[in-house]
Amino acid sequence: MLESLISNAYLRSAAILVATIAIAKIVLVMLTKYLKQITAKTKTTIDDELIDSAARPLDFLVLICGAYLALQTIPSFAPYLGWAQAIAYVIIMITLASVVSRTVGILLTHWMRVKSTYQKAPQVLQKGLAVVIYIIACLMILSHFQVEVSPLLATLGLGGLAVGLALQSTLSNLFSGLYIITDKPVRVGDLM
Fold first, then answer.
1. Who is most buried in 64, 103, 107, 192, counting CB within 10 A?
2. What is the dihedral of CA 71, 72, 74, 78, to 10 degrees?
3. Is 63 inside any structural domain?
């Protein structure tokens, strides 16, 4: 349909890009203004934080998809579409991993605030979950490019075992500290 309206491929590509920018801005305004007005009526702030963390990455994802669609309409760019698709896939996966990591961090922080016993738990849990999410995203990217991930997983397992054995006393102290913070067997003012 767009081909019949605009015969020049470059103008078609520019029209798609301009339309994508307009759609991205509409999505951003919808998320930041209208949806925030709805969530402002709730008692909790978790929904506001989730919208703030997801608005910009979703705007960016719409722009990346639009740029890829715009490049598809240019015939001279056809030999490079495989590269463009690969780059778009990597950017989309990293952006989605970032959104999931932020969302999990916000939910975990809110849960720790609600549970008074876990309120002072350190950021180690959030950072650890973020690392796991990014590792899963990297493995999915490698799998998309037909890179065999089984040997990599075995190597990561052996590497984790080596690090665990090398840092045994440090990790023991870390988990002991987490236990003391979360379970609170000792409180301020306790005497021996």
1. 64
2. 110
3. yes
What's the domain range around 25? 2-147
Q: 97 and 133 in contact (C-beta within 8 Å)?
A: yes
Please check whether residue 179 is in contact with residue 118, taking contact to mean a CB–CB distance below 8 angstroms: no
pLDDT tens per residue, range 140-164: 898 888 888 888 778 878 888 888 8
End-to-end, the C-alpha distance of the chain in Å comes to: 81
Query: Which residue would you say has higher pLDDT here, 122 or 12?
Result: 12
Residue with tokens 């929904």: 47
Q: Would you say residue 34 lies in a domain?
A: yes
* Beta carbons within 8 Å of 182's beta carbon, 6+ residues apart: 117, 118, 121
State if pTM tops 0.70.
yes
- Maximal C-alpha separation, the chain: 85
List the helix and strand counts (H, then E) for the chain: 8, 0
DSSP 189: T
Give the confidence band of 189 by pLDDT, cuts at 50, 70, 90: confident
Element (H, E) at 109: helix 81-114
Domain contains 157: no
What is the total count of domains within the chain? 1
